[in-house]
Amino acid sequence: MIDGPASAILKRRLGLHKARQRRPATNIYECNEARMTDSTQRESLTILLASPRGFCAGVDRAIKIVEVALEKHGAPVYVRHEIVHNRHVVEDLEGKGAVFVDELDEVPNDRPVVFSAHGVPKSVPAEAERRNMIYLDATCPLVSKVHHEAEHQYQAGRRIVMIGHVGHPEVVGTMGQLPEGAIILVEDIESVDDIDLAADVPLAYITQTTLSVDDTAAIVAALRRRFPAIHGPGKEDICYATTNRQAAVKSMAPQCDALIVVGSPNSSNSRRLVEVAESMGCGNAFLLQNASALDWSRLGSVSTLGVTAGASAPETLVQELIDACRERYDVTLETVSVGDETVHFNLPRALSA
Ligand code: SF4
User: Fold this and answer.
1) What is the position in ligand 1's atom list of the atom closest to the CA of 84?
2) For the chain, where do the domains classified as CATH 3.40.1010.20 start and end?
3) Domain 5-55+241-337 class in CATH
4) In terms of CB atoms within 10 Å, which of 95, 229, 316, 331 comes out highest?
5) Residue 29 pLDDT > 50
6) Burial of 191 (0-12, 13-18, 19+ CB in 10 A)
7) Best mutation site among 60, 85, 143, 268 for ligand 1, i.e. most ligand atoms within 8 A of its Cβ?
């Protein structure tokens, strides 16, 4: 899926990288044959723009499902939980006629309801069917794949260890695929020691799709030390979008005085990008919901700023941030790319017809 972060760094070292220096911009213009110098001096700012960034195929599909459902059924269309973890996306859909609710009992029987991209416990579609509701499942196919894996391992007689964050909707949805107690949740290496099972118990692990690639590898290694026969997924559960966005941040973070991740505080993959930047030595990495929320003093005497966006953050928010930077700095924009993404998911058959 990616060329690897080294190629991007190499390109920059071979000459694409603009020198990190502060150069006052001096605008000179002529007036009545006299040369005048603009007294406004703006500092230089190099923005390293991560690629890929922002919307992934699963988020794109989930938003389209709500939009097409609105076209097909008219407003209101109900959505159980935030369709994706981004306030801007939610407000935009609300403007089009979507109504966001916490639970199915807030939805009238005769209106369609969409389940969010994070997935839902099995009890949710079961309840919708019991009430003869029209429901559309916007669960990302890569989350559904983890659901199937959990089910398959359980049918094969194994207990399941899930690596993920307590309370995250994706974790709640995945754990809700199996009877209570079938899945043991671990958040970190320390909690591997707390698993109350013998070393030879048939066991398999699955993971949340939006975790830190490196932290998860360390937890898997700890699981393998304690349970040498543990089964793992054929292909890692952490999705391509999470992996690629983290690779791009890894590639550029060491060169950045500050790094902004455009995304919401409840977006798991966005928060992981901040942690990845910090782990790569960028001491000033932070989440930002949108440009108007930026406290400019937080940038300090920045000369190279990294910018990326979580998988649920629209590109328009990134462009607004760059425009806001241009109003204050003499900006040079460079893209740091670790590869292209071509993944696309089709809409559910009920909407694509
Ligand atoms: S971040 Fe990954 S798992 Fe989540 S919606 Fe996007 S592609 Fe799917």
Assistant:
1) 5
2) 5-55+241-337, 142-226
3) alpha beta
4) 331
5) no
6) middle
7) 143
Name which of 222, 250, 235 is nearest 163 in CA terms.
222
- What are the residue ranges of CATH 3.40.50.11270 in the chain? 57-140
318 with 262: CB under 8 angstroms?
Answer: yes
Q: Which of 144, 239, 264 to mutate to test the pocket of ligand 1 (most atoms within 8 A of CB)?
A: 239
The pLDDT tens digits for 132-162 are 999 999 999 999 999 999 999 999 999 999 9
Cα–Cα dist 126/113, whole Å? 13
Fold of the domain built from segment(s) 57-140:
Rossmann fold (3.40.50)
Q: Tell me the C-alpha distance between 107 and 105, whole Å.
A: 5
Could you tell me which of 340, 335, 338 has the C-alpha nearest to residue 47? 335
Q: How far is the CA of 111 from the centre of ligand 1 (A)?
A: 27
Q: What is the mean pLDDT of residues 279-296?
A: 97
Task: Given the residues 43, 170, 320, 327, select the one marked as catalytic.
Answer: 170
Rounded Cα distance between 44 and 319, Å, is 18
CATH number of 142-226: 3.40.1010.20
- What digits encode the pLDDT tens for the residues 190-226? 999 999 999 999 999 999 999 999 999 999 999 999 9
